[in-house]
Amino acid sequence: MRHRFPPDHYANGILTGDRLTLSRAITLVESTRADDQQLAQQVLEQVLPKTGKSIRIGITGVPGVGKSTFIEAFGTYLTGLGHQLAVLAVDPTSQRSGGSLLGDKTRMETLSMNLNAYIRPSPAGDSLGGVGHRTRETMLLCEAAGFDVILIETVGVGQSETVVHGMVDFFLLLMLAGAGDELQGMKRGIMELADALLITKADGDNRAAASRARVEYQNALHLFPPTGSGWFPPVLTGSALTGEGVADLWQILQQHQQLTMQNGHRLQRRQEQQLTWFRSLLRQRLEGQFYNQPGMRERLTILEAQVRAGTLLPGPAVQTLLATSPATDRSQFE
Ligand SMILES: Nc1nc2c(ncn2[C@@H]2O[C@H](COP(=O)(O)OP(=O)(O)OP(=O)(O)O)[C@@H](O)[C@H]2O)c(=O)[nH]1
Ligand SMILES: [Mg+2]
Q1: Does 203 lie in the same domain as 76?
Q2: Measured in angstroms, how far is the CA atom of residue 63 from the centroid of ligand 2?
Q3: Which secondary-structure segment (H or E) carries 257?
Q4: What is the 3-state secondary structure of 56-117?
Q5: Are 293 and 325 in contact (CB under 8 A)?
Q6: 239 in ligand 1 pocket by Cβ < 6 Å?
Q7: Same domain assignment for residues 15 and 98
Q8: Domain extent for 303
Q9: What digits encode the pLDDT tens for the residues 89-110?
Q10: How many A from CA of 192 to the centre of ligand 2?
Q11: Other C-beta atoms lying within 10 Å of the C-beta of residue 200
């Protein structure tokens, strides 16, 4: 079994920027063991005053749009400016594949060797909600360790964009030129979440198409209702090969940061995110507690069979389930 240290050990190591300790603390956060979880919470509490000082950026887009490649270019640029960058991922598919950002580490070759960058693959989780919760805590640990830019990559699968949008200050949507919205799996909803759009691979033969797409998307975005933050999402073109768009994006991020810090929207957004986090965690825990009651599975099986057959309505079925404690009263199901 792995050795555990007292909470101070982790907290002190993190606050001095020690990578090994940071990684160990993240492993605690990701652990499903109750004692690890308790230790993780103690560590988080200790470092909490040192969190919140980074720019939190979410990046999404369909598989193959160029997220990893762009992060490699953008991240290298940022560390060149003296920033400390952490790259995290929310990947609902990683439970099956064992962490796709792991494979990405090889794609982010330069960045993974960069001493001012820290790449952490998505935790394998039982649910998207669980993965999101752990990524939030990991983000706080990274902030306490001194990372001032946090990039969270997610592939546009399921609701993962919404989860990531709910933990960042700035949400960037990468898109391909000429691929068609349907092809990109882009529900209108995702575009509405974006603080900026970046048309990727704007190089070689693709340049002209990328420029056209930029104008088209900019026009499309004008039709969306204003966000209320005073920010109008710009559309840029970019290329990881030529470096186009990299510096522009950083400039836009800073403008956004400045605006939303001045007008109070960044604080408001973070406060709302914290509340949403709390509520979703509470919901998860309640659900977990409920379904993990002894005998629950059997009771559910019986009730669901009756509901399916139409002999019991969902209303009374739920009532029955909530009213009786399976531990004390199982007689009626036997
Ligand atoms: N020409 C060109 N090709 C690019 C650019 N960026 C990425 N690519 C290529 O596009 C392919 C996909 O890039 P990735 O960065 O792996 O895409 P991704 O969005 O991270 O994909 P997933 O991790 O599968 O979701 C790779 O073959 C890259 O070499 C670019 O700026 N220009
Ligand atoms: Mg990738």
Answers
A1: yes
A2: 7
A3: helix 246-262
A4: EEEEEECCCCCHHHHHHHHHHHHHHCCCCEEEEEECCCHHHHCCHHHHHHHHCHHHHCCCCE
A5: yes
A6: yes
A7: no
A8: 293-333
A9: 887 665 544 445 545 555 688 8
A10: 22
A11: 23
